[in-house]
Design goal:
Rossmann fold; TIM Barrel; four-stranded antiparallel beta sheet; single chain; 17% strand; six-stranded mixed beta sheet; 29% helix; 700 residues; alpha/beta
Length: 700
Amino acid sequence: MTRAEAREKARALVARMTVEERAGQLRYDAPAIPRLGVPAYNWWSEALHGVARAGQATVFPQAIGLGAAWDPELLRSEAEVIGLEGRAKYNAACAHGDRDIYKGLTFWSPNVNIFRDPRWGRGHETYGEDPYLTARLGAAFVRGLQGEGETMRAAACAKHFAVHSGPEGERHRFDARVSKKDMAETYLPAFEALVREAKVEAVMGAYNRVNGEPACASAVLQEKLRGEWGFEGHFVSDCWAIRDFFTGHGVAKDAVEAAALAVNRGCDLNCGSTYAFMMKAYEEGLVSEATITEAAVRLFTTRFMLGLFDGSEYDSVPITAVEAPEHLKLAEKAALESAVLLKNDGLLPLDKSKIRTLAVIGPNADNRNALVGNYYGSASRYWTVQEGILDYLEGSGVRVLTAAGCHLYKDRCESLGRPGDRLAEAAAVAEASDAVILCVGLDRTLEGEQGDASNSDASGDRRDLALPEPQRSLMEAVAKTGKPTVVCLMAGSDVDLGYARDHFDAILDLWYPGAEGGKAAAKLLFGEVSPSGKLPVTFYESVDDLPAFEDYSMARRTYRYMEVPAQYPFGFGLTYSDVRVTAAELEERGEGLEARVTVENLGPRDTGDVVQIYVRCEDSDLSPRNPSLCAFRRVWLKAGEAGTLTIPISHDALTVVDGDGRRVVDGRTFTFHLGTSQPDEKSRQLTGYAPLRVTYTAAP
């Protein structure tokens, strides 16, 4: 069904409703209208990395891990699974009269905010710090979720429009001040791609204000969205964000004014309760019948496009589609691709024929919370790292010794014990082993959304980049044993790995790898599969390298603007082999370019890798400080294999953004860097080689 057809049906249905009935449909928990055959519908569903909060589902790696995979096709496939499982669960729920929250087909995902500061607790919901990478991955997710059939498989939602990345504790009253250049260069590109290219069905506004206007009632943002970009879907508020208009932002005196302001500025759907006052606003003349009607028509257009009234090809998807074997296999593949090898002094991959006893130590070794991040579903089976290793080594003759070593963040594991009550056990286990797998990091109790994470003093954000003190003590205790050690980091953001880098043999970043994560970790550690992920965020040496958290200027932030060396750079990630770009040339193709790249696996093992292309306009003062990602392609090569790739480069790579937020041509000389990392000096030191440089001069 085309949008025009769906909108015509929606207009006809809404025309039969009273004004009060129309107003009632603007709530996330829209009531039934029995006389018109309209069932109740709850718009609030989540699917960040699998159908969430609705029972059993395939649990993929957290979004930041999917960002580390640098694989749009993987994201599209994952989202197809989510849409199919969402349909299965919706069909089953409706068959039993269940139209509760989290049971619908309007999923409030993906989160394409820019992870501009590692202190932000919700950063692991995003695809990282780069607008181009975020746009490519987010658009792929939307296409997979919504599908291309007669009806939408499910409806995606780009959130949180448009400038939102902490601090969590201030979001209900905070005003993010952003220059026009930073807005157009960093904060808007992913949203624009999801709207213009992927035709995302919904957009969610943020809690905070943006340059003085609340994001859920911003004339400036709505003009960009519906005017310039031509968005035709519906706009939804973040949950209880409209209440903030009068309790936090001071732009309305009460709920009546807040409801009127939001709907008049284009917010069709209220996640919250403020639109319960919509009829009062209508009676007081603050909002017109036409405005209420238009919002209702937009919402019913979505419902018709989903086939919720006329039926669809998805109505027969059975509940047995949930956690289908091929879905679980895809989740394992995602966990394998997302892992980033940050250091390897030759210890990895482990050779089980040379190990008699292996120690698996750390608070995240057997922690299910460290698999799932936030906004997650329930898996029928979870593989923690400890379980994955035990299963992998079963029957091999290798003895596995385990020890938590410490609590994730408390100074003792047992309330009656003394501080450090598990350190001695960890040291003894390490001493008795030939090698150690040390699993440290965070979980959703330490970083996440305000109100969800347990660190209430920071509202889900982090004050610094350090591991909790008990884990630092554990690392010191293990280091003193002198045993060969692999650090497995499980976290959703940048963690200071300075001590691990200086004292241990290998570091593998697993992120929050999903329910299949431990199974994937074992295959990576023992070399069945080579790590191939790349960092989607910068790992800084210290927060002292960053501006204030509340400062939304991009100066000194992310790899594009930072002025000091990273601890581990954006785009970095080792493999068990040696993949390099050995030849490259650029050709003009339409308005953009095309890179023809020869890539070779010069090492001894089959592996995946990611070819990355960065660009900088050398004769424009408007260029970002450092070269910016403009294209990439994931590859897989057998040992000794070479291949040739053709990678398109958008015309946008040959432009810059001026002070008024306009993308313009302001220079002719461009340097392109083509390799498997970005071209910064730290990446060169860590990889041992530099990407190829190609200069391109545009015609005058």
